[in-house]
Every structure is written in structure tokens, then in C-alpha cells.
Design brief:
heterodimer, A: 163 residues, alpha/beta, 2 domains, 8-stranded mixed sheet, 8 strands, 31% helix, B: 255 residues, mainly alpha
């Protein structure tokens, strides 16, 4: 009897360990966060270009994650990307003239939405739309802008050199 | 003509074996609900196949993770993106290394013990004795062992992956100085829930396959000392091949 009890205990321990490992894998290394309190409110923001932003990306203020990108859609009337942000209820005093920008974390990192607080008296409520937005920076556009400005300079410089 | 005849014979043997395995699988599945009446037997087998394999799984997981950390760091250093080590290690462990290596270890540790135990029961006529006592050996012996293995394997896979990630972290962050914050945050940013699911689905599938092969080979072993040895060898070889073939099929399906 004692033998079988020892087997039970170690089996229980093994199963517990396995379950812990699964929970660890699901909660700690994926971008899914199962918060116990799911109180949050939604904001929407319309961008011309969201770059590589994905659902589940963090929404941060001064680098602190305050929410997640819930979904990304496309508005066929305005031809803009509609990004729905889910912000934790704890951060419910964001001035309603704050702006949302899409940034890239590091050189190769994923993109996230950064919110810079404004100084209005009123605050964002559930369902509000962020008015001031800044699109994702697309590397190709930057490069082509730089190249064109260089080409322009060369043209200006060329006649001067001939003289 | 002799060679051709032999090949034909071998093919026929293989098909017969595959057919017998399929029929055996059907029988085991049909009898599986009856195991719920005696959960004690299944618990004992979860202990035998799972808890007793824990030490080898954890040791191997740690070292696989540490090697992955070293190799990954060496490779990524060339591109100046050491921080991506977490992402690469987590994805490769979850999707491939974790389930496959665990299955191979499982076949070596638990599969052989199942096969030799059943083979010895067959060789010493214990299975026939049960039949005489009107105890169905399928129900009493085979099904609990199959279920125990199938339950233990996904849990072992999860433990293996978690320990291996710890190993990667140990080498990458503690020894080689990758920034801890970016290591974890890049990993979290890139790994989706579906990647974890893929690993667990593979773990379940390999668990069913390896346990089934072990109990099939053991149950149908020739009742001699040599036959038991052969059954054990076949268990490891067939489990390894089937695991890798199934891995390709599952990857192709889920990619």
C-alpha cells in the first residue's frame, strides 16, 4: 500500500510539472497575456500606413506597455487602416488630444503603437477615436527620399563644377 | 528470380505487419474506454513511462538547450543580431526539436521498457495464463500501458521544451551576455499561441505512435529470449522512423 502511495505522489508530481510547463509555454513565451482582470477599454486610430504592425503588438506610453493592438481592419470609405487598441482600465486618464504613432522596436524588432500624452482636460473614453496619428516609417520611402535629394544636389552641383 | 521473390516476400511481410498494427490499434482504441473503470492501472503506467523518464528528459533538454544557445549565438553574432536567439531557439524547440527529441528519448527509455516487459510476459506465458483466468490481457495489460504512454508523452514534451529554454537562456544570457530584456521580449513578440499548439499536437501524435508501436511489438513478440530482444530493437527503430516521417507530414499540414 505504501508503495502504491509513493507511485501516486510521484505521478501527481510529474503531471503537475507537465501542466506547469504547458502553462509556462503558453503564458510566458507567447505574446498572449491572460490577465486575470480583463477590464479594458477600446480606442480606434486610423493610419495611412501601418507598416508591419500586427494584432497583439504592444501599445506603450513612455515605453510602458499599457495595452495591446486588438485588431487591424481597413476602412473602404476613407482608404485607411483602422487599428483597434485595447487599453488596460488602469490607464484611464489619457488626455483626449494624445497622439498615436507607430514605432519600430530596435532595428529588427517588431512594431508597436506609442502614445504620447497631450494636455487636454478631457480624457479618452471607450470607443473614442485617436485624432492625431503618425504613420509607420517605411524604410524604402526614406531611402528613396534621400536618394532623390542627393540626385537634386548633384544636378545643382554639376553646372557649378563646369564653370 | 531469387532476389525478386525475396523482395515480394518482404513487401508482403511489411504489409501484413502494417495491417496487423492497424487492427491492433483499432482493438486498443475500442478497449480504451474500459480503462476508465480501473484508472489505477493507467496511473501506474503514467508513473512508469512518464515520471521515470523525467530525469533523462530534463538532462537531455538542458543540454540540447545549451547547445542551441551556443550554436545560435555563434550564428547570429555574424549578423549582429544576438537578441534574436530567444526567438529562434523558442520556435525551433516548440515546433521541431522538442517533440522529436522527446519522442526519440521516449522510445529509447519508455518504449523499450514497455516492449520488453510485454515480450517477457508473452515468453513466460503470463499472457496466456491471464486468458485462462478469463482476464483479457488486452484490457488488463496492453491498454493501460498504451494510455499511460500517450498521456505522459505530451507532458514530457512540454517539460523538455521548458527546460531547454532555460538552457538557452543560461548560455545566451548568463554566459554570453545577451541582454535579458530583449531576449525575452523578442521571443514573446514572435511566438504565437499556434506555435505552442503545434508542439503539443506533435507531442500527442508521437506519444500515441510510440506507445502503440511499443505495446504492439511487445505483445506480438516471439516467445523466446531472442524474440524479446528483437521486439525491443524493433520498437526503437520503428518508433524513430515513424516519428520522423510523421513529423514531416504534420509540419507540412500545419505550416
Amino acid at each position: 500500500m505504501r508503495q502504491s502511495r509513493a507511485i501516486d505522489v510521484s505521478t501527481g508530481l510529474f503531471v503537475l510539472l507537465g501542466m506547469t510547463a504547458i502553462v509556462f509555454l503558453v503564458t510566458q513565451i507567447t505574446n498572449r497575456e491572460f490577465s486575470v482582470r480583463s477590464d479594458s477599454y477600446r480606442l480606434t486610430a486610423q493610419f495611412e500606413n501601418i507598416g508591419g504592425l500586427k494584432a497583439g503588438a504592444p501599445v506603450s506610453m513612455s515605453g510602458v506597455t499599457i495595452g495591446r493592438v486588438e485588431s487591424i481592419g481597413y476602412d473602404m470609405n476613407q482608404f485607411k487602416a483602422v487599428v483597434t487598441l485595447r487599453i488596460d482600465e488602469a490607464y484611464d486618464r489619457i488626455p483626449n488630444d494624445s497622439d498615436a504613432s507607430i514605432y519600430t522596436a530596435g532595428l529588427l524588432g517588431g512594431q508597436y503603437v506609442g502614445i504620447t500624452p497631450g494636455n487636454a482636460e478631457d480624457v479618452y473614453r471607450d470607443g473614442d477615436t485617436v485624432e492625431f496619428v503618425q504613420d509607420a516609417i517605411v524604410l524604402e520611402k526614406l531611402i528613396s527620399k534621400y536618394l532623390f535629394s542627393q540626385a537634386g544636389k548633384d544636378k545643382d552641383a554639376a553646372p557649378a563644377a563646369q564653370e | 528470380m531469387g532476389l525478386l521473390g525475396e523482395m515480394l516476400q518482404n513487401t508482403r511481410d511489411f504489409l501484413a505487419r502494417l495491417g496487423a498494427l492497424t487492427r491492433f490499434f483499432g482493438q486498443v482504441l475500442l478497449q480504451s474506454p474500459s480503462a476508465l473503470l480501473r484508472p489505477r492501472l493507467v496511473v501506474e503506467q503514467v508513473y512508469n513511462t512518464g515520471a521515470l523518464s523525467l530525469v533523462i528528459i530534463m538532462t537531455c533538454g538542458l543540454f540540447v538547450g545549451m547547445v542551441l544557445g551556443l550554436q545560435g549565438h555563434d550564428l547570429l553574432e555574424r549578423f549582429g543580431s544576438e537578441e534574436a536567439l530567444g526567438t529562434g531557439a523558442a520556435l525551433s524547440l516548440l515546433k521541431e526539436l522538442g517533440p522529436v527529441v522527446t519522442a526519440l528519448l521516449f522510445a529509447g527509455r519508455a518504449g523499450t521498457s514497455l516492449a520488453s516487459e510485454l515480450g517477457l510476459m508473452r515468453a513466460t506465458d503470463q499472457l496466456s495464463a491471464m486468458e485462462i483466468m478469463a482476464v483479457d490481457p488486452m484490457r488488463r495489460v496492453v491498454v493501460p500501458r498504451f494510455l499511460g504512454g500517450a498521456i505522459a508523452m505530451p507532458l514530457l514534451t512540454a517539460i523538455f521544451i521548458a527546460i531547454a529554454l532555460f538552457g538557452v537562456q543560461l548560455v545566451g544570457v548568463q554566459f554570453l551576455g545577451i541582454d535579458q530584456g530583449s531576449f525575452w521580449s523578442q521571443m514573446r513578440g514572435a511566438v504565437e499561441l499556434s506555435d505552442v499548439n503545434e508542439g503539443l499536437i506533435k507531442g500527442v501524435t508521437f506519444g500515441i505512435a510510440c506507445s502503440l508501436i511499443a505495446v504492439f511489438e511487445g505483445y506480438n513478440a516471439e516467445p523466446t529470449a531472442e524474440g524479446v530482444g528483437r521486439a525491443t530493437t524493433r520498437t526503437v527503430v520503428i518508433s524513430a522512423v515513424v516519428t520522423l516521417v510523421l513529423d514531416y507530414i504534420l509540419t507540412a499540414l500545419m505550416l
